[in-house]
Amino acid sequence: MKRLTGFTASCCRSFLTSPLRRDLSLTSQSIVLKEFVDSGLPEPDHFKIQAELFDEEKAKSDLQDGGFIVEVKALSVDPFQRATIRSDGKHKSAVKVGEPLNGFVVGNITHSKNSHWKVGDLFGAGLPFVTRQIVTPEILKKTAIWKLTGHVTDENLTYGLGILGMPGSTAYGGLTDILRPKKGETIFISSASGTVGGLVGMMAKQIFECKTIGSCGGPAKGEFIKNVYGFDHAIDYKQAKSVDDLVIMLKEVAPKGIDMYFENVGGIHFEAAFQSLRPGGRIAVCGFISEYNNDIPNLSSFNPMNMIYTHQRIEGFVCIPWLIGKRGTFLADVSKWLKEGKLVVHETKFNGIEKWPQAFQALFTGNYKGKIVVTV
Ligand SMILES: NC(=O)c1ccc[n+]([C@@H]2O[C@H](COP(=O)([O-])OP(=O)(O)OC[C@H]3O[C@@H](n4cnc5c(N)ncnc54)[C@H](OP(=O)(O)O)[C@@H]3O)[C@@H](O)[C@H]2O)c1
User: Fold this and answer.
1) What are the start-end ranges of the H helices in the chain?
2) Model confidence over 165-216: pLDDT tens digits?
3) Which residues contact residue 17 at a Cβ distance below 8 angstroms, ignoring those fewer than 6 apart?
C-alpha cells in the first residue's frame, strides 16, 4: 500500500473529489491518531483521515492461504476506544500516534483464500480503521470476527456494530450468564438509552419477563426508553445530586429493592444500586462510562461485608466469549428475537468517515439515542 500523503479531513475531502476518486478500488482511507488524549473530551483535532492507494491486484497476488481482503462499509464508535488513545498504552487495543485506530467494523469480503470465508460474505470484526485491508491468518488468530451473512443484508449491515455485534453480545452475555434473571425479578440498568443498556432492558422484559428500571439523562430519554424499549420505569439520574437521592428515586419505583443491577456508568449509580440490592441480588459490572474522561477515576465506596449473609454477587465480565460463540448462542438467539419483533433497533447514523471524530465525541455528551454508527 502506497501512502499518498498525510491528509487532514479537509485535504482528504479535496483528494476524494479529484479524478483519482473515480476509481474507488484504488482508495483506502483510515482514521489515524494525531495526538494522545489522556483526559477530557476527545476533539476532532485529535484525529486525522488519511487516504492511501490500495493496489488490489498486488494485494491479491500477495495473499497467503487462509487470508482474505475486506472492504469496510461502516465503523463503530464505542466507549472502550476512549482508553485506546491514552499515552499509557495499557489497553489491549491501544494505538500509537500516527497509527490507525482500532475498533469494530462491518464489511464484505472482496477476495478470499480461506475456505470458511467466501467472496461477498458479510462480516463484523475488531480491526484497524482502514477501509480496504488484508486480513492475514495471523490477524484472524488474534481478532474477534463473526459472520453476518444470513443475519443481515447490505441495507442493515450496521446491525453488526450494535445488536448483532459487540454491544449485543455484551447485553446478552451480561444478562443471561452473569445476572441469570428469573421471571418476575426486578432489574435496574444504567445508561439505559445507550446500545447495551437498551438491549439489556428489552431482553430482560421481553425474554425473561422481568420488571425493568432504566436510568438515563433527562425526561426526553426517559420517555424514549419507556416508549421504544418498553422499560417499566425511567429514572432521570441528572436529578440526583447524591447517592441518597438516587436510592430514594429507586425506592419509589421498586419499594422492595432490586434483584439485579447492570452497571454501565459507575459513580453514584453503583453505590445506590448496591444499597438497594435485595438478598440474593446480583450486579454485573460492564462499564464505568462516567469515569472514562477522568485522568484519575473516582472510586466507589461500599461495604462488601453486607454481602455475606445476603448471598449477593458482583461480577465483572468482557463480552468476547459470547461474541465469538465460545459461550452461549448469541448470534442465533438475538437474531431470532429480532425477527420475532421482541427486540427493536434504534440507530443514529453519521455518514462519511470524516464524521467519525464528531460521532465519537457524541458518546460522551449524550446527544443521541441508541447505537451510533459511521457509514464509510
Ligand atoms: N464489558 C464489556 O465487554 C463491554 C462491552 C461494551 C460496552 N461496555 C460498556 O458498556 C457501557 C455502555 O456502552 P454502550 O456501547 O451502550 O454505550 P453508548 O451506546 O454509547 O451509550 C453511552 C451512554 O452513556 C451515557 N453516559 C455518558 N456519560 C455519562 C455519565 N457521565 N454518567 C451517566 N451516563 C453517561 C449517555 O447516556 P445519558 O444521556 O443517559 O447520560 C450515553 O448515551 C460503557 O460503559 C461501555 O464501556 C462494556
Assistant:
1) 9-16, 56-62, 81-84, 137-142, 166-172, 195-206, 219-227, 243-253, 268-275, 307-310, 320-323, 330-339, 356-365
2) 999 999 999 999 999 999 999 999 999 999 999 999 999 999 999 999 999 9
3) none
Grid coordinates in use for 337? 428475537
Residues of the chain with pLDDT under 50: 1-22, 24
Residue 290 confidence (pLDDT): 84
| Residue with grid cell 459487540, as numbered in its chain | 166
The residue length of the chain stands at 376
Report the chain's mean pLDDT, rounded to a whole number: 91
**Are residues 266 and 291 in contact, defined by beta-carbon separation less than 8 angstroms?**
yes
Q: Which residue has the cell 452497571?
A: 263
Nearest to 10 by CA among 45, 52, 43: 45
pLDDT in tens, 20-43: 444 545 789 999 999 999 999 999
The grid cell for 321 is: 466469549
Helix axes 243-253, 268-275, angle to 10 degrees: 50
Q: Which helix (H) or strand (E) holds 103?
A: strand 102-112
- Which residue of 226, 264, 268 sits with most ligand 1 atoms within 8 Å of its CB, as the best mutation to test the pocket? 264
Chain centroid to CA 197: 11
Kindly give the pairing relationship between strand 233-236 and strand 211-216: parallel
User: What pLDDT does residue 25 have?
Assistant: 53
How high is the pLDDT of residue 16?
44
Look at residue 60 in the predicted model and tell me its pLDDT.
Answer: 94
Distance CA 204, CA 185 (A): 9
Question: Taking CB atoms and a 6 Å cutoff, what residues make up the pocket around ligand 1?
Answer: 78-80, 166-167, 170, 191, 193-197, 216-217, 221, 264-265, 286-290, 317-319, 363-364, 366
Task: State the pTM of this model.
Answer: 0.91
**CA distances, 184 to each of 83, 177, 205 (Å):** 37, 17, 9
Between the CA atoms of 165, 118, 143 and 148, what dihedral angle is there, to the nearest 10 degrees? 10
Distance CA(163)–CA(167), nearest Å, equals: 6
